[in-house]
Structure formats: structure tokens, C-alpha cells
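Onboarding guide, step 5: your first structure request.
Type a short instruction followed by the sequence, for example:

Predict the 3D structure of this protein.
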Amino acid sequence: MASSTTSSDESMPPQQQGKRQVRVWCDGCYDMVHFGHANSLRQAKAMGDYLIVGVHSDEDITKHKGPPVFTEQERYKMVRAIKWVDEVVEGSTYLPTPATLDEHQCDFCVHGDDISLTVDGIDTYEALKTAGRYKECKRTAGVSTTDLVGRMLLATKTHFNVDQDTLEKGQTEELGSSHSAQSPWTRLCRFLPTSQKIVQFADGRDPNPGDRIIYVAGTFDLFHVGHLDFLEKAKAEGDYMIVGLHTDQVANRCKGSNYPIMNLHERTLCVLACRYVNEVVIGAPYPVTADLMDHFKVNVVCHGNTAYAPDLDGTDPYAEPKRRNKFKQINSGNSLTTADIVGRIIENRLRYEERNTKKEAKEAAIYEAFMKTRQSTAEN
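The system replies with C-alpha cells like these:
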């Protein structure tokens, strides 16, 4: 049975108080939550006042799509931390109906302009479309779970410097799906970062006078529940949190192998979508310098229990905040790392390839039938 939890205690803006609240429903697997998921929820929230997100159980996802990468408890927590989400319904039905919306007092459902199918090839939202309680938002081109899986299986150290057309339309597609039937909705497409997208995701406010400023730095690659638990604990150290994101080159030097999986622009949006984050320094210097601390008026610099590499000259990148007695090590209670997630994918490669193959083949067939129907309608 689905359970509901509220993730935000924000009240309605004064100008909306007294007006009828428009309640919006979204649902999905939200496996390997990325900025594409966050952007769809941002758009959905803009269509109403209160956003409720249903997250499917591991059992339902395995039945309809194949095994998820993250557990249901990890996925519930990740969705709850997206700043546009007001409430999460755990273990929500895979096939929503008008009764589902009525149960949660929602006016309509919002989903991206791709298609979602059940294990039987049925449009997941057919009942809501028929009832006139379905709206669409624009899917974020250039990111998909399929692509991310492919990147994790890619073992070249400099993959983020490779020609993007060759990489994204070739190797990651083959490794992530390993088949010829591409989905017209989730086939790989280059993500093009824009200033508008960053503004849409940004907090948009400066610290208030007297706020205690927290600074944390890192790669935050494949933004996951381990990062989330750390940021939640770090935010408790003050009022306004700034995250310094290292460049792809710095991340590769420190992490090695095929890291980072996501490039700097992608990682920026993932971090900005987190409700605990107020600001992001894009391409922050690896050492936490005196200039940086003075410029942002940093009161405390936090780091987790994970080991960190020395700077190029062999010095401690946290020497300055330690010298000022403004460094604090945080124990998040969660040891999950990006490497652990990559390990999950590699260990279950064949299962994920099979999952992606079935999913995209079904979507390609549905899309072909849809296009034939539309062409026939136009001719008549």
C-alpha cells in the first residue's frame, strides 16, 4: 500500500492564500535521479501550487521495466530532496487512474512528452488522458538513465574530452542499450547547457544578514543518496550552503579511471536541484583558498569521511580553513560512493542491457504506430 510523506513545510505565497490550491501529480521510477527528472518536476510544479510525486516500488519496476539501480528507499529519499517536490507517495501504483488523483486530491497529472508503457505495452497514462486529467511537460533532451548506464560501462579515462558526437551516438548508446531499435524519446542527444537553464534551477537569493555560510566542495558525480545525506548534515551547520564543483579535469585527476561520469554542466544542475543547496560555484578551485573564503564570507568548510587527494604541489587543499579553525569533518552515516554505483552497474551489466533493449524496442514500435496513425489522419 502506498504511503505519503510531506517533504516541504513551505506555505503558499501570500498572494495565493485564500485561493483554491492547484495540486499536481507526477509519478515514475526515478531511478538514478538526474537533472532531467528534476527539470520535469520543476515544470510540473510551475503548473500548480502543490506537487505530489508518486515513486514506484522495486517490485513494480522490476515487473514492468527490469531491476532498478537504486533501492526504493534510496529513490524515495532522492525525490524528497528535490526542491520543487512538496510530498512523496511511496510505492505508488504503476498505472494511475482518476481514482489515484482523487485519493490525493490532485487536479491533474503531468508527465514528459515521451511515452511510458506497462509490461504489456499499454500506455501508462491512458486512463488519465481519457479523463482529461493529463498534461505534458517538455522532456530534457540529452540525458537519460540509458545514457548514464552506458557512460559507466565506458572505460576510457578521457571520455569527457572525446568528440561528443562520436561518444554520445556511438559508444554510450551501444553499451547502454546494445541493440538496434532506438527509442525515439530516449535515444541519445547532446545536452546543451544554457544560462536560462541554470537560472531556472538556481535558488536566486543571497544570504541574509547574519546567516552562517557553509562551504563544501567536491565532484558530486552521479548525484546520489550518499551525497544527499552528507549535504543534509552539512546544511545543519549553518543557514546558507555553497557547493564548489570541481572541473572535469580536476575530477579526473583526483578520481582517475573514467570519472567524472557526468560533465560539469550536468553536475551543476543536479546539485542545484537539491533543496539543501543555495548556491554553486561552477569550476571551483581545488584548494579552498583564502580569497574564496573571504569573498563568500565562509564561516565553516565541511568535508565528509571520504579521503581526498592532495593539491598538485602536494599540499592539503583544506589547509586554509584548518588554519582558520573553520574546518569540520562530517559523518553522514552513509558510505555510498559513485564508485559503488558504477560497481552495481558493472556487476549487473547483462540485466541492465536486457532491460534497456526491451524498453526501447517497445517504445520504437509504439512510436511507429503513432506516426502511421497521425499520417493517416492527416491524409483523410
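Each response can be followed by summary notes, for example: The first strand starts at residue 3 and ends at 6.
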